[in-house]
Amino acid sequence: MYKEPMMLAPLFKERIWGGTNLRDMYGYPLPSPRTGECWAISGHESGTNEIMNGPLAGSTLRETWTDHRELFSEEAGEEFPLLTKILDANDKLSVQVHPDDTYAKEKESKPYGKTECWYILDAEEDAEIILGHYATSEEEFRERVDNGEWDELLRPLKVEAGDFFYVPSGTIHAIGAGVRILETQQNSDITYRVYDYDRLGQDGEKRELHLDDSVEVASIPHEDPGIERTTAIIKGMKREHLISEEYFSVEHWDIHGMTHEIRNPSYLLFSVLEGDVNVWIEGERHGVEKGDHFILPASVKAFTLEGTGAFIVSHSNKEK
User: Mannose-6-phosphate isomerase cupin domain location, by residue (predicted)?
Assistant: First the structure.
């Protein structure tokens, strides 16, 4: 059916911490000066991308997952498994945590919890994230929250462009002001807020916190997951492996020239971070550029890349 990239129209979400950097970085037509998220590759019920080309143009990714599973190697599951976002943290996000699959199914009646990872696209000087905490027990965690001892509880890390972080479900975390990231995650939107800096929402009230759920799902004490970035230089491409874990694999590709033919293992998700690149499929050229997001479906068995650019490339690791 498809012998070309399945190009997707991005969706945008207004957030109280958002800004206009997604317009400045990628030329996106933002709906609001507080645009915090670009849902770049999504089949989620709260927002799914429209397909812009090919025989399914005008359909959504969510519909296509249901009706044309052959494009995804007949992968099992009611929902498209992954969600790719770009986040513009013009202000700091809430301190939060996400549940695992079991808790999501039992407590929220949703198919997936939320494990995610972050590739830092841009960071202002001295920008930080929160990744983990210092509490050694649930009692200590609750005590420090009750006493507002955030500096003693939360673990800050300085970040810069090109950094990569793995954030499994159960990890206390927050993205700080002045950070732009590309996030690859499970297809879930379940968030439990631990702390929100006493900010007011659009209704003038403090946003809801979820301390009991947060404590129940949080990893206490925190443990850093071990990840090892590896790089291979092959014809026309520097291919950096960022992570492979239960739900997804993520790589960063730098293209300079013409690559060798690349076999498509199943279906691949692409976000173009920089440049202009041609995707060659069965002798046909398909141009993609900075800010584009697309899927190479399972019907594309092999492809070649040509040009100068950078991608984040991911795929699902769910079993059939």
Answer: 241-315
